[in-house]
Design a protein that fits this description.
Layout lengths: L1 E6 L2 E4 L4 E9 L8 E7 L6 E6 L5 E3 L7 E6 L4 E6 L8 E8 L4 E3 L3 E6 L1
Parallel strand pairs: 2-11
Antiparallel strand pairs: 1-3, 3-8, 4-5, 4-9, 5-6, 7-8, 9-10, 9-11
């Protein structure tokens, strides 16, 4: 059984920064071969992809966060990070991490990020 535990959410003023972390534990056969994703879901909206970092280092961001957010991974710690700078009120959402391969799909419980104007 695999568990993903997120941390780092909170309340911040517009223009501020937060760093989200998501650590995986349990029976993961080959986490290095898996992709890490960050999603977010704002109230009344659908869940949307924020950033992805593949097993080979491929990185991509959603247009609204490009230039402000940075995704990284530490395979030795089974952890993915999302550094969020220049936060805006429209970034307010529950952020979820996702660890995925062709055969497996794991989700964190979500962490609330609230940006005040």
């Amino acid at each position: 059984q695999v568990q993903l535990v997120e941390s780092g959410g909170g309340l911040v003023q517009a223009g501020g920064s937060l760093r989200l972390s998501c650590s995986a534990s349990g029976s993961i056969f080959s986490i290095n071969a898996m992709g890490w994703y960050w999603y977010r879901q704002a109230p009344g909206k659908q869940r949307e992809l924020v950033a992805v970092i593949g097993s080979g280092g491929f990185i991509n961001y959603a247009d609204p966060v490009k230039g402000r957010f940075t995704i990284s991974r530490d395979n030795a710690k089974n952890t993915v990070y999302l550094q969020m700078n220049g936060l805006k009120p429209e970034d307010t959402a529950v952020y979820y991490c996702n660890l995925r391969s062709y055969h497996d799909d794991y989700w964190g419980q979500g962490t609330q990020v609230t940006v005040s104007s």
